[in-house]
Amino acid sequence: MSDIPGLCVRRIKTAIVGSVALFLAIVSVPVHASGTVVWGLPVGVSVLDPHVSCGWMAKFVDYQMFEGLVEIDLTRPEAPTQFKGQLAETWEISEDGLVYTFHLRPGVKFHDGTSFDAAAVKFNFDRFLKPDAPHYSETANGYFAFAGIVPLIESVEVVDQATVRITLNQPNNQFLRLGMEDCPQMYMISPKAIMEYGEENLALHPVGTGPFKFVERQPGVKIELERNDNYWGQPAGPDRIIFRELEDPATRMNAFYAGEINIIQDPIWDELENLKDEGYIVTKNENAPTLWYMSLNTRNPQLADTRVRQAISYAINRQGLVDEVLHGFGRPAYTMLNAGTFAHDRDYVSYPYDPDKALELLAEAGAENLRLTFELPKYGLGELIEKWVQRDLAKVGIEVDLVAMEWLSYLDRWNAGMPPEVAFTDMIWGMQTPEWTSITYRCNSQPPNGWNNAWACNEEVDSLLKAAVRTQDLREAASLYQEADRLMMMESAYAPLYHYANPIALHPSVKGFVNAPANWWDLSTITIEE
Amino acid sequence: MGLYVLMRLISVVPVLLGVSILVFLLMHLAPGDVTSTLLGPMASPDARAAIRERLGLDLSLFTQYWTWLTLVLQGDLGVSWVHRHEVADLVLPKFFNTVILASAAALIAYLVGFFAGFVAASRAYSLSDRILMGVMLILGNTPLYWLGLILVFLFALTWRWLPATGMVSVVDGGGVLDVLRHLILPATASALPSAALVARVTRASYLEILNQNYIRAARSRGVPRGLILRKHALRNAAPAILTVGGMELGYLLGGVVFTEVIFAWPGAGNQLYSSIVGRDIPTVQGIVLLIALAFVLINLIVDVVNAYVDPRTRTALSGY
């Protein structure tokens, strides 16, 4: 006889039947489909005020809503990227490289209905250049100063309603590109919005002129944009874009496999082959300006001898790393001039994999029993890259201790430059301008003024970099940047590991997406075919 | 009783104060600062200094804490350094989402745990008791992260019955049914460890009561077993079960963070994690304050309910 009373059993049966009925009712709710792009972001998005914002994700979101006078064209996959007029239809640069004249596109409206004109351009520049302007922002000034833009600009003048003239105080052939990076972003914001919301609230009400308009942001959950039907150019394909911040790699993969997002940025590397087998489209761009590199501390007593640093560069099997860890979604890197810049030389190989040569150099330098500390950030994929390096260096008798730390703690140490007891740190980033190598290598870029955290310094490199940015001949500039890069590689204070190919997987219904050589993409070209 | 509740409510204040001071100091002791979150790796020392000044980080720790406290006492939790939103606007909806998840998990834990414990106790030391308690033990000790992924793999990816992430569908979502669909997997994953505990406590309490003389007496008088289990034993076993249940709800409110990450549930735990990582101190303080407050209040409610259920506690509190 059952010990559970009959009444109880009946109730349990009723409860089970009821639960099953409810479950069926719940699971039968249809999943709606529409012309909406749902993009799974791998990292959170900082504030949506382009003048005081940093980071690839913020730039990516802003790219859809805002426009600059000139932007890079992300509708083509080839590198280097080309310029296209956005709010400026055309522009001219004077022969001495000092005066930039922009002829503005007529009839453009901000999302709030106000008109875009030369006064709006001046108003935007005043926000970070003119301390007595009512909307002047010290923070914006700090950002643009650090990006090297504030010290360059002599004046911004309104010539007429449709013409703006910017005069530089020294020639700089990378002036336009510097304004197209992510930190900060030289976009035109509605002057009405700047005045109405002030610096504190502007990021909650982004108002630009781009093909998409801001709808809402739920921090940590989603950012929603909708098509701007009054856009001056070709109307965007999708009705809506929803960016979901899904930082956990497994969660992001699950959301993609479940069809809850239709584009996934940075899928788990081990899943890349599986994704293709499952019928998803996996895109990549081998010329993205995204470089994973190690800093080799020149102030570490064990690394003071250049030959030891060169031996380390020879000892790393970059091709193996790309094949085994990245499943081919990258390219071995032998230069600090990343693949996205116009000065990148694809054929240059500074340190091919040669463990015998590494052993020879170590013996020459009398380096024995090396035990080195590698500080690295935890990035959720089990520190695969550093473990690969650790294994390769063990093969030439170098013992490496990995010290992983949480991102912000790491970033603070990375910014401060390595103390002598640390041998290596690493980082993945890059810009489309070769000027990036100045930021990471010049003598005056040593911390706290820049990210030369391996404490490298070579005056010849400095003068080459200076000459490269001043010439008006871009061919000459490219060769000067390359010459400087070869000197840098000889010193081996930095060991580039690979150019990341930015894998992005698409649901088969997503058409027209271009994986451009950048760290943000143009979503207006997409269509969703149900 | 009223006095007792009042005293308990007053005792909440030093607890919250202590928690907020501890969290405030811990956040300041941790290496890394918010300017790196706000400005990224490219920030200049000047820009960092400007941000520190704007946020008041250049003031002494005491002044910073005092400023925060005086604002909180006026009902102002401050502004998130990272998101620029009012902390209350940012955190309250997310805390509400966590309450939904934790309550659903607790409900499942109570139902499953109580039922399993009840059945196991009523068939104590039989094969079914051992199997049932064995299963509960295994489920209760399964790592949550793994369990969550397995549930997603089966129900969302393989059979496609339920969604894998979020609280509502991001496209045209919303409504009670939509939330329920999204709730089932994370609530079940969170519930199982608690259900195991409730089952064990229920079984142990029942067994203890069933061995009491008054139960034997009732049986010998021919009172039906079902009636004994439901009427005579339940009320006496209830205080221990209620106490554990209450504790588990409190635990779930602060402890569903893993589930929130795996299922991208937009709750306070998820926000707490990203705010700690981003050194967004006002947001961290706001969330911790809410969780601590909820934990203390739930304990108080459990004690009060216990007093109503258990005459012994009622008598003990009658001095108040």
Share of residues in strands of chain A? 15-25%
Count helical runs of chain B. 14
The biggest sheet of chain A, with number of strands, parallel, antiparallel or mixed sense and barrel status, is: 7 strands, mixed
Structural class of chain B: mainly alpha
Tell me the radius of gyration of chain A.
26 Å
Describe it for me?
The complex is a heterodimer of chains A (530) and B (320). Chain A is of the alpha+beta class and 530 residues long. Chain A is built from 16 helices and 21 strands. Chain A has helices at residues 6-27, 56-65, 118-129, 138-146, 175-178, 191-202, 249-257, 272-277, 306-315, 318-324, 355-364, 384-395, 407-416, 436-441, 459-470, 474-491; strands at residues 36-41, 70-72, 83-85, 88-93, 99-104, 153-160, 163-168, 212-218, 222-227, 240-245, 263-265, 281-283, 291-296, 330-332, 371-377, 399-405, 424-429, 494-500, 504-506, 510-511, 527-528. Chain A is globular, with a radius of gyration of 26 Å. The model of chain A is unreliable at 29-33 (pLDDT under 50). Chain B has 320 residues and is an all-alpha fold. Chain B has two domains: 2-73, no CATH class; 91-317, MetI-like fold, CATH 1.10.3720.10. Chain B has helices spanning 2-29, 34-39, 45-55, 61-73, 87-122, 127-141, 144-158, 176-210, 213-220, 225-255, 257-262, 268-277, 281-309, 311-317. Chain B starts with a helix and ends with a helix. The mean pLDDT of chain B is 85. The interface between A and B is large, with 70 and 69 residues.
Protein traits:
heterodimer, A: alpha+beta, 21 strands, 32% helix, 20% strand, B: 320 residues, mainly alpha, MetI-like fold, 14 helices, 78% helix, 0% strand
Briefly, what is this?
Chain A is an alpha+beta fold and 530 residues long. Chain A is 32% helix and 20% strand.
